[in-house]
Amino acid sequence: MGKLTASTYGATDGLVSEIDLSKSHKSGLDKYEGETDRLLDINSEPLSSNEKLAFAAGALVNALSTCTTGFYLNPFLLEVAQIPATLVSLMMFIGRGWDAVTTAVVGALVSKYPNLRRWLLIGAIPTSAAYMAIWIIIPGLSENQRAGWHFAMYLLFQLGTSAYHVPYTALTVRMHHDGKQRDAATTWRMLAEILSVLFGAGVQGIILALFNANDDSCNSCDDDAIDKDAENGYFYSAVVMTAVIVIGGIICPLGVKERVVVKPLADDEEKPSVCSSIKLALGNRAFVTLTGAFFFIWLTVQAVQGNILLYAKYSIPTWKNDFQYLLGALVFCATIGMPLWMVVMKKIGKKRSYIIGGTLLAPMLHILYWLPKDASIWTGLAICIAAGFALAACYLLPWAMLPSVVDDAELKTGRREEAIFYAFFVFFMKMGAGIALAGSAMALNIAGWEDPCCRATENFPICDCNNTASCDCGQPDGVGDALRLVIGIIGPILIALGVVLLFFFPITPEREEEIREEKAARMADVNVKRQSSRMSLADQGLTQNFIPIRSSDVDNASGIRKRRTMPPSMPKTSENLNPLTSNKRPQSLNVTSASLPPV
């Protein structure tokens, strides 16, 4: 008798494993008992609305916390905690650098321990706790001690977001093998992120307004006291945001299924080194060009996000009391623009859509450099509406393009390293945010930023808030000019660099169609070989020990197949043994493999 094999498969990767059954029946089954494929449980059913909603809820953890810290942390540290601009810039730069390093480490750990939903629960806990602590000002601390407290909590917060964000973004690839289903999930996620920005910026702005946290009330430097109204406003807004973050962190891992279940490599299998995985990612042209473009464009988005409140206060003073309306218009239009960009993306491709979005955003930012100090609120609203639509493309398109990069790399190399790709993507995203915030704070320091308390004027020895003539509560004119330079000049230049890189992105709409066709061909070939192997086993009388892996066979917590045995009461007749002639499904699965040669 010739060599007899049974095929098992993982449809996403198009992999087939051949198991030699030419040995004695019992010993062959004992040898392979309990093993599983690297990729199991491929479910071709479309993602349900509940799964998409649960996945979108997970975006609240990172998006909401990142939004509020991006918009309000700089003003909070400078104006409420009264930490010098030099220390704030160091805190932002070191904190984001630490965040980038931990992101890379988490990516390597996720590759080794691939249960993503467990990672989500682990990451949500320190994220929510540290986020709350950032906004708490401990009384009785000196200036340097306050800086140390907020710096420590900021580092813990960045560690938590890394532990959550990397597995959450990688979950997109695990939810479904079909690119259209993943694009749909990405769209829901981006909508949730935009709504998180709207909710976070809007609700926190409303709470701060209730406590008069952004007014110009006199706070004398001679009193050496924290503005209690502003402190309470930031504290209670943090309580609301933390509650929403916790809810999102619970819903996502409980409501989302990992349709592609991944098991760690066995001890006797060759494990790719971290260096080889990094080399695989950084040696991929599509990944490098997409990451570079995203880095420069995201750098601008973060610089605008971190300084737009200060810009409205010091560059265009007529906007400072209407900032929440400007921000609401920006985020609302970005939310509406998200499904519109999905339509455009399907018509002309992701690459061209991203180029158009970046090209539209740059001139909107450049206009802000030339606006006079007394510009009307209607001018600001018009700019925010136009910029909001362009901003939607900058949020949506890079994350919709990344899964195609992962698929393309897999087809070329035979290795699927989505955790490394997503880890490096998040790494450069967070590094860009750190550079943007630190650079902005340094620019303000060079421009002459002063402590946000009222100083005594030349003719008075101290500032007496009861005598407005004795107090100077403003900032030097150079501060407003520096904000104009960062947002209106440097920002558009960085966007232009990103758009230029996008022209070298190799995955065109035609290449995406080739990727889909090649994956479909591999899956069809796998199914043919699998059916052929089942028929061969039936001819040899071995089919009682082979049935396909199904979703109920997999333990989602560990990714390991659960063994099912035949009930003692079931008679072992030929009808029960042969799945090709029986209506009853055999009840044991003892033949699987851990070796995965690509087709």
Explain what you see.
The protein has 599 residues and is mostly helical. It has 16 helices and 8 strands. Helix 6 packs antiparallel against helix 12 (377-413). The radius of gyration is 28 Å and the shape is elongated. The chain starts with a strand and ends in a 22-residue tail after the last helix.
Topology:
Layout: E1 5-10, E2 15-20, H1 25-32, E3 39-40, H2 49-80, H3 85-112, H4 116-134, H5 143-175, H6 179-210, H7 228-255, E4 261-262, H8 274-282, H9 285-315, H10 323-348, H11 350-370, H12 377-413, H13 418-446, E5 455-456, E6 471-472, H14 477-502, H15 509-539, E7 554-555, E8 560-561, H16 574-577
Helix pairs in contact: 2-5, 2-6, 2-7, 2-9, 3-5, 3-13, 4-5, 4-7, 5-13, 6-7, 6-10, 6-12, 9-12, 9-13, 9-14, 10-11, 10-12, 11-12, 11-14, 12-15, 13-14
Counting DSSP E segments of at least 2 residues, the number of strands comes to 8
Poorly predicted parts: 1-42, 543-599
**Average of per-residue pLDDT values:** 74
Largest sheet: 2 strands, antiparallel
Cα(first) to Cα(last) distance is 25 Å
β-strand percent reads under 5%
Tell me the overall shape.
elongated
Order of helices and strands: EEHEHHHHHHEHHHHHHEEHHEEH
